[in-house]
Specification:
- The chain has 252 residues and is mainly α.
- 81% of the residues lie in helices and 0% in strands.
- The chain has 10 helices and no strands.
- Helix 8 crosses helix 9.
- It is globular.
Length: 252
């Protein structure tokens, strides 16, 4: 049993090492990721109506997997204790919404009414809301973690928040706006894929210099987040000191 656990543990760790925000991975892995992501985006942009269902299935599965990986981080105690409850809530929303969408899709048609269990409106509503909340809650990890986890949180905030907003736009605008929303999501994936391809080529040409610049850029964002966090903590501490009579006025 422990042998199987070790193998699964190593497999998950190895998979997580393929994340594009890690500067330690080979440039060609990022290139492959860019081609796959960009390819999905291109297919959606060229045929948004035909790719509607396939895109929904891919994104629903992706949302559930993202949530499960968050739970895995909590179990591995790689998430700071001060934010683990917020991360658990974030993961729960993603897993629940992703699995719910997949279950409703595979249930198929209702035999009594002939209607689909997962309507387009319901699908966009569940997916858009869950994705937007999942993206916004990434800010908890931006301010509460560091290193690769912070890089991941920044990328997830940008990606999931934008996709969630577009999906909800398509839902509330109604009509052909849903197809427009799908096309926009396709463009988001296409641009992300192109960005990964450019990043991989740049890293291949610049080598360690590119990795150092990536670390410096993400470190600057992390430093700003730490400054905001420390500012929020220092104010109560000053108030406590003054209440305890440690202020200059109290000494006089």
């Amino acid at each position: 049993m422990s042998e199987n656990y070790d193998l699964s543990d190593q497999a998950v760790d190895a998979a997580k090492q393929l994340a594009p925000w890690k500067t330690s991975i080979p440039w060609w892995v990022v290139l492959i990721e860019g081609v796959v992501v960009g390819g999905i985006g291109l297919m959606v942009v060229l045929d948004p109506q035909g790719a509607n269902v396939n895109l929904a299935l891919v994104l629903s599965a992706g949302l559930a997997i993202a949530g499960l990986l968050q739970f895995w981080d909590i179990l591995q105690e790689s998430v700071p204790e001060k934010i683990d409850s917020a991360v658990a809530a974030r993961a729960g929303i993603a897993v629940y919404a992703g699995i719910l969408l997949l279950v409703l899709y595979f249930i198929g048609d209702d035999a009594s009414t002939g209607e689909q269990a997962l309507t387009r409106v319901a699908g966009f509503g569940i997916f858009g809301t869950a994705t937007l909340i999942y993206g916004l809650l990434a800010l908890v990890q931006v301010f509460g973690t560091g290193g690769n986890q912070r890089r991941q949180a920044i990328l997830e905030f940008l990606l999931f928040t934008s996709v969630g907003l577009v999906a909800l736009y398509g839902l509330f605008a109604g009509g052909t706006a849903i197809i427009t929303a799908v096309r926009i999501i396709g463009w988001i994936f296409l641009i992300a894929g192109i960005a990964l391809i450019i990043l991989s080529i740049w890293r291949q040409q610049k080598g360690d210099e590119a990795d150092e610049m990536i670390d410096a850029a993400t470190g600057a964002v992390g430093g700003a987040a730490d400054a905001v966090t420390s500012l929020g903590r220092s104010q109560p501490a000053d108030g406590i000191d003054k209440a305890d009579g440690d202020s200059p006025k109290a000494e006089k």
